[in-house]
Specification:
Blueprint (H helix, E strand, L loop, with lengths): L6 E8 L2 E2 L5 E2 L2 E11 L5 E10 L2
Antiparallel strand pairs: 1-4, 2-3, 4-5
């Protein structure tokens, strides 16, 4: 299990299609979260995470 804290920036549906092997896939729901990651030198890096989610 992971713990991810941040701000939800966007929720969207990625359109289905075909992969490189020619296999088709359905639409997928996605969420984008902006999180702050502490770096070893004490600085903070903002990073955008895009995750697939269930309905």
């Amino acid at each position: 299990m992971i713990k991810l804290e941040g701000v939800v920036l966007n929720v969207f549906t990625q359109q289905g299609g075909q992969n490189k092997k020619g296999e088709s896939f359905d639409d997928r729901d996605k969420v984008q979260i902006l999180g702050a990651m502490d770096l070893p030198n004490g600085d903070v890096k903002n990073e955008l995470f895009t995750l697939s989610v269930e309905d």
